[in-house]
Amino acid sequence: MRRRSLIVQLAATAAWPLAGRAQEPTKFARIGFLGLAPASASFSRVEALRAGLRDLGWVEGKNILIEFRWAERVDQLPALAAELVRMNVDIIFAPSSTFVEPARQATKTIPIVFAINADPVGLGHVASLARPGGNITGLTMLSTELGPKKLEILKQAVPQVTRFGVLWNPSTPSHRPSLPAIEAAGEKLGVALHMAPAQSIEELEAAFAAMAQDRVGAFLDVASPLTFSERARVAELALQHRLPGMFGIKANVEAGGLMSYAADINDLHRRSAAYVDKILKGANPADLPVEQASKYELVINLKTAKALDLEIPPKLLDLADEVIE
After folding, report:
1. Domain range list for the chain
2. Interval 271-301: pLDDT, tens
3. For labelling alongside 154, which of 114, 245, 281, 323 has CA 20 to 30 A away?
4. Entry pTM
5. How far is CA 44 from CA 48, 92, 270, in A?
């Protein structure tokens, strides 16, 4: 009996360190997320990122934490990026160039992942798409190619229009480099362009008023966090001033805009989870090639066209991937 008791005690003693380790708190990977308020405007994108992470085994509250930082204004982003750096998060998720730039200024060591950076090479965020070469990588929609294509499609929708507005945001880093390509496309199409900068709700209203005063017949929205988060207001302003609009995000059309030509933004956010996964498992962002969006969809809102007394050419409707009625 004494020998059996000794064996039980030895077994219990040997198991104790294992039990102790099992009760140790799980080490969570921490992802810093930079965004613009209101958070509700980005709900579907955040959920897409979460879904992508779950597919790869990363579950919030189990082995990963997402530290959200929502700025009321773009000029608050540098301070929020610096805060995430002080917290020593494992990765900073900076969706587009607007967020990548302050994150890049805040750290050269913490990996930064983007989902829809419009011009990562032109802005110096990566050395090349094939070999980023630093601490930044992700997915891109190349705006220098996309802007002219959007203007061309808009011209097909309103062939009688000869003067177009270009709604752009000076606080979005990728916009200035993309404007020359849009201007060149305007010259090729033989149309005049009215540049309408706006970086706040108040400036959006002024931009639409200026376009209307200049007798603009339609406008191209160079997609930005502002026109995305304020998409309902942008749609209202477009209807108020009777201006057909071409957008770079499908959500703008779902909110009442006329049409969009864009990649699936939610899909790009979901795919960006693969970069987070690889980096957390030890990959170097410098060696992870930037992926380009490969599929673009044309979406047309016929309800909005009717409200504008606009008849979309049948050929363009046939090309649409989705028609909202």
Report:
1. 29-141+265-292, 143-264+296-324
2. 999 999 999 999 999 999 999 998 899 999 9
3. 114
4. 0.85
5. 6, 19, 10
